[in-house]
Amino acid sequence: MAIGAGAMPLATGGTTPAVYPAGSVVPDYKAQGFIPEIWSGKLIEKFYDATVLAAISNTDYEGELQSFGDTVHIRTKPTVVISKYKIGGNLSVQRPVGGYVDLQVNQANYFSLIIDDITEKQQDINQLSMWADDASEQMKIAVDREVLQNLMGTPDSLNLGATAGKISGNLNLGVTGAPVQLVSRNPGVGQVEVLDIILRMGQALDEQNIPETGRWIILPTWAAAQIKRSELRQVYLSGDGITPLRNGKLGMIDRFTIYVSNLLPSGTAGTQIPGQALSLAAGEFAVFAGHSHGLTFASQLTNMETLRSEFTFGNILRGLQIYGYNTVDGKALSQAVIAQGGA
User: Residues 318, 113: contact at Cβ < 8 Å?
Assistant: First the structure.
């Protein structure tokens, strides 16, 4: 029996003295209408997946898309080559040319719901308001999941893989089939501490000259739990007044603001990496770190409206979001493929 299910039990002939002697019929007061049922006007709280898109991306070009068109060509600065000067030598003249990256608004999500007039009239709660709140949260979750899935493979090639690092070339950030096995502390053979993968991703960004301020990293919940069990559980190592094991806050580690998400790509049934014939194996997770400069997002239209149905007597609630996103600088993003090696 589920917790809280069923009616209150009634005393039977087993009591002393007997409330209902043998042969007596136990009255069902509830069935006879003497015990009423009450429907609460308060709903059970619903909890949603945490979304991180607003914290890890920029919206620098959203204003241009909201005003005109569905594509913005984002120009990149050219790189000037410095040459050695020799007396009497001819100067080599350059004509620097930069490239560009396109940000297209080519994605759209919607919902459409209806409530009949009779149903709405007879109900004691505002269904449309409840639906609108839930739809807003579900829309954010859908976009977050999509962006994180499609972020795979887009960081610069020197910021991912088993030989990452523009200068060092020896940072193992894991690949599908050979993920970095993480543990909280005391790693065994083939394992590394969870803090080490954060330091490696930070070094990859350092070697690309990415600014230290404004960096972020997204981890799955189990990796966040490992951090709380790591050496940072000691107050004198974390630098905070209270250990993360006490307050549950991860804060910043190695210049990264730590975000935790259940929407990161994981290899349950395999997650396709865009443009590559690769997928995540079971137990593998893709994690990302970077600077908001690397990823841009734009929402051109977000609309929610109610209208009368032309096919029946009822109100329709529907919403539409038109948006786009792109990696505008892969050097400002890093990717690791990890797996849980232990507690």
Answer: yes
Cβ atoms 266, 222 nearer than 8 A: no
Residue 317 CB-half CA count within 13 A: 17
Query: What's the alpha-carbon Rg for the chain, to the nearest Å?
Result: 29
Cα gap 127→325, rounded to integer Å:
33
**CA–CA distance, 198 with 218 (Å, rounded to integer):** 10
DSSP 236: H
- Whether the link from the prior residue into 17 is cis, omega within 30° of 0, is yes
pLDDT tens figures, 71-97: 888 787 888 888 888 898 888 888 888
Of 98, 53, 108, nearest in space to 73 by CA: 98
Instruction: For the chain, give every domain's residue range.
Output: 7-36, 47-343
Task: Name the pTM for this structure.
Answer: 0.78
| DSSP per-residue codes, 49-80 | ----HHHH-B-TTHHHHHHS-SEEEEE-PPPP
**pLDDT (tens digit, 9 = 90+) per residue, 161-211?**
999 999 999 999 999 999 999 999 888 999 999 999 999 999 999 999 999
| Partners of residue 253 on adjacent β-strands | 256
Q: By three-state DSSP, how is residue 115 classified?
A: strand
Tell me the CATH class for 47-343: alpha beta
Distance CA 176, CA 95 (A): 42
What whole-number distance in Å separates Cα of residue 300 and Cα of residue 318? 17
End-to-end CA separation in angstroms for the chain: 34
Q: pLDDT exceeding 70 applies to what percent of the chain?
A: 77
- Phi, psi (deg, nearest 5) at residue 155: -65, 160
